[in-house]
Fold this sequence. Notes:
binds ligand FEC; four-stranded parallel β-sheet
Amino acid sequence: MSTGVLLMAYGTPETGEQVAPYFTHIRGGRAPTAEAVERLRRRYEQVGGRTPLLDITNRVRDGLEQSLAAKTNGMAPYRVYVGMKHWHPFIGDVLPRMATDGVTEVVAVALAPHYSRMSIGGYRKAVDDAAARLSPSPTIRFVDSWHLHPQFIQLLADGVREALGAWNASTRAQVVTVFSAHSLPVRIREWDDPYERQLAASCEAVAERAGLDNWRWAWQSAGDTGEPWLGPDIVSVLDTLHEQGTRHVLSVPIGFVSDHLEVLYDIDHEAKERAAALGMTLRRTRMPNADPAFIETLASVVAEAG
Ligand code: FEC
């Protein structure tokens, strides 16, 4: 028996030409309009033409493999594979490769801490579908969420304290911290999805650990699908805070762990531009990316799933 880790992330297009097929995959095979593709392509251009999501995930992979080898004294090293939900290397292509390499047990973990049927459920479906096509099928140990892992909460609390340290002591006391995550359609409430509860639990734990007493919640990155999405959006939260006299905001995109479009564009361009127009300072916490403390966190998540 050989165990492998499938480290999963969202996926990102590498070139402008790949934006249309990538977007079509996100939409479950329905092609978006040419205007919508162009708007998305422009967002990628604004962050330098591509995002570092795949590079970061590969670095996390390398670190995780080393950390797991150290944890087992090199006796039963786990190989770690990267699989993406919406772009290459697709989960559905990687799982067969793991089987060819002799992996019979797969620990699957996504670089997204909170469970929703609409997000992690999609990773799970991609894994289950790929496993069902294999004979024999590997045993799958799928990690649904790790949003309250103590090392994750500590890492975020440290990030909050570090970011707050950029303000001088008297201004720091006036900073309002705004946690955010990817919005989803409001209909997730119809099936009592745990997403909102898990996000609230993570925020409360981080706020307590970091000693925050002035924080708010905002959604971000809502899609334009013609149905209502969860709000308020971070841009309107900035408007409200401004009306209430807030001048300094710390953004903590707690629903994400890597630098990618939803952070580099939606926070670093869109939200920062609105804050600047309102005369407010907006800073954001560093993403965990391939930080050694984050890699140790994931190694614990994997070991605990094993
Ligand atoms: O850097 C990159 O290139 C990838 C950035 C990226 C991440 C990400 C994470 C999440 N999404 C979630 C839900 C949805 C739903 C729809 C949707 C649409 C998009 C589009 C782009 C995109 N998402 Fe994404 N998401 C990222 C990128 N996402 C681009 C298409 C254009 C747009 O709407 O902005 C709507 C699908 C539809 O139209 O039918 C729903 C959730 C996450 C957080 C969990 C995770 O990371 O897996 C939830 C990163």
